[in-house]
Amino acid sequence: HPCTCPPSQYNQAFNWKPTKMANTRMTIHMCYLTILLLLALLAPPCTPVSDTDDGTNSAGVDGSRRARAEATVADILSAHNAARRTVGVEPLTWSPGIAGYAKDYARSRRADCAPRRSSLFYFGENVAVGKGRRWDGGALVAQWVDEGRRYDYGSGSCAAPAGSSGCARYTQVVWRNTTQLGCGKIVCDSGDTLLVCDYFPPGNYGTGRPY
Predict the structure, then answer these.
(1) Which CATH superfamily hosts domain 92-200?
(2) Which terminus of the chain, N or C, has less C-beta within 10 A?
């Protein structure tokens, strides 16, 4: 049987709130190291299912659904790393701990299916919604990667229309200092597909270029 990871273990870990950080490199590094330690301690012994969620108990998921979940993880990673390879940055690795949080947050938006970021500041986060339930993870990631067409590296500007998401989702995908990724994909009550991806260390931080 595939392993399951109770949401409570992630909730307990990520309710941790650091004290007010001084604006120093050392403090930021210590914060990152603490989060990495939490993720390492709470990561489940196998990769959590990150696939279309129909609300059933994942303990009863059969082998074919498990295979689909693993294929979804592979599609999401492949789409991210193809974009990163294009700009010459290192590939991301999958984090079961981060994926557990992303899946819990995606489930919390099942009723409204709103593409809104969570409140966590120590992860970068991208959220996408696809109409209908037949979306694979790679196709949803492609929405973010497509923003790269509007990004001008020389000026660091984004030629995005007013009211759009700009290029921040693309720059998070290719952010050079980000090393870990975890995502959750569900089908909302509306029948649409919601994908949440969280990144560590977070991108779009400071004034530097993404790569």
Answers:
(1) CAP (3.40.33.10)
(2) N
- The whole-angstrom separation of Cα 159 and Cα 161 is 7
CA distances from 48 to 43, 70, 184 (A): 9, 9, 9
Long-range contacts made by residues 147-151, C-beta under 8 angstroms, separation at least 24?
148/83, 148/174
Using DSSP's 3-state secondary structure scheme, residue 180 falls into strand
184 close to 105: Cβ distance less than 8 angstroms: yes
Whole-angstrom distance, CA of residue 58 vs CA of residue 54: 9
Q: Which residues of 109-142 are buried (b: 16+ CB within 10 A; e: fewer)?
A: beeebeeeebeeebbbbbbbbbeeeebbbbebbe
**Three-class secondary structure of residue 193 per DSSP:** strand
- Indicate the pTM of the whole model: 0.74
Encode pLDDT of 102-150 as tens digits.
999 999 999 999 999 998 788 999 999 999 998 999 999 999 999 999 9
- Of 125, 100, 103, 101, the C-alpha closest to 115 is 125
HSE-CB for 204 with a 13 A CA cutoff: 17
**Partners of 187 in beta bridges:** 193
How far apart (Å, rounded) are the C-alpha atoms in residues 46 and 104? 17
Number of Cα atoms under 13 Å in the Cβ half of residue 42: 21
Q: For residue 160, how many other CB atoms are within 10 A of its CB?
A: 14
